[in-house]
Amino acid sequence: MRFIKWSLGLIALLALSSYSLLMLPAVQDRLIDKVIRKNVDNSAAQALFNDDAMRLLVCGSGSPLPHKTRARPCLAVIAGGKFYVVDTGPGSWNQLALRRIPGERIGAILYTHFHSDHIGELGEFNMQTWVAGRPAPLPVYGPAGVERLVAGYREAYALDNGYRTAHHGAALLPPERGEMLAQRLELPADGHRVPAFEDGELKVSVFAVHHEPIEPAVGYRFDYKGRSLVISGDTRRDERMIAAAQGADVLAHEAQSQHLVARMQALAAEGGRPRIAKIFGDIPSYHTSPVEAAELANAAQVPLLLLYHLTPSPPNRIAERVFMRGVKEMRPRGVAVADDGTLITLPLAGGAPKVGRFDP
Ligand SMILES: [Zn+2]
Ligand SMILES: [Zn+2]
């Protein structure tokens, strides 16, 4: 008994003394320096740019619906020392900045279409990568409409760009490098995949998808040194995805649980929210279910299907089980559900795609 009393007393004393230590400014400063040093060090993120793999980092796995941790759609393809961002949904720059991705390495931004959940942060991406030291204007690719998007963001950020050059000097922030270059991609009428652009050994191609009434809407394929990945963008189940993904290592496909959306519609109507119920009733027609995405991945014989743009994004494991109902029966292996921070690695030496996380 006496021993227990002594031990408890000792623990209380230690807790009290470490608490009082934490109150000392010198100790606080040492701890703060430790945190700042960790935040300044971006060596882990720089290592993602080693030319031993093509990589896909998820910077937004969510949907337009609110979510505590997921940003709206954003995928970063890392190849040849640069990263290429497909869609910049609200919250997505934060996901890259938290992981200390070197903004100056951005190669281009590519848009699948111009819904607000995909375009929300173009201004932030352009400004942040310019401030990080991007050596040239930022190319922004997309189907017809990309010129309007770029012109609008350019105007919206014109004052901010001016402030920054005035404050930090043109030597650090030359205004001409802060510009964006709209690159409109033309699509053939037959819906076939066509080259979009090349950067060194990276080849990017573009294909039309079905997201009516939104037109044009596109998906992209990235090929780099024998590895390849395909990004669906927003689309209903589209057979053309099979041809686009043939021979690819990864198909990153949007996914919407029609079962959950139907429940949301019914319960919104029941709860006296007719406007939301109407919207939930409209959206199934232009998205793909997880089972349909699995079916397409099987038909294309893609080793890995990565589901992203999850509508609604499952908040926990049980919700994820509901979201994924029927997928295992369709495709027992080779399916991953994206989260913000999911990292897919495709080693250039060959081998199966590796699914992991990047949280330095
Ligand atoms: Zn969307
Ligand atoms: Zn959309």
What's this model, at a glance?
This protein folds into two domains: 1-40; 44-118 and 186-357, Ribonuclease Z/Hydroxyacylglutathione hydrolase-like (Metallo-beta-lactamase, Chain A, 4-Layer Sandwich), CATH 3.60.15. It contains 14 helices and 15 strands.
Query: Going across the major beta sheet, what is the strand order?
Result: 6-5-4-3-2-1-14-15
Q: Indicate the CATH topology of the largest domain.
A: Metallo-beta-lactamase, Chain A
Give me the Rg, rounded.
Answer: 23 Å
What is the count of β-strands?
15
CATH architecture term of the largest domain: 4-Layer Sandwich
Low-pLDDT ranges: none
* Fraction in beta strands: 15-25%
Per CATH, the superfamily of the largest domain is Ribonuclease Z/Hydroxyacylglutathione hydrolase-like
Feature tags:
360 residues; alpha/beta; Metallo-beta-lactamase, Chain A; 2 domains; eight-stranded mixed sheet; seven-stranded mixed sheet; 38% helix; binds zinc ion
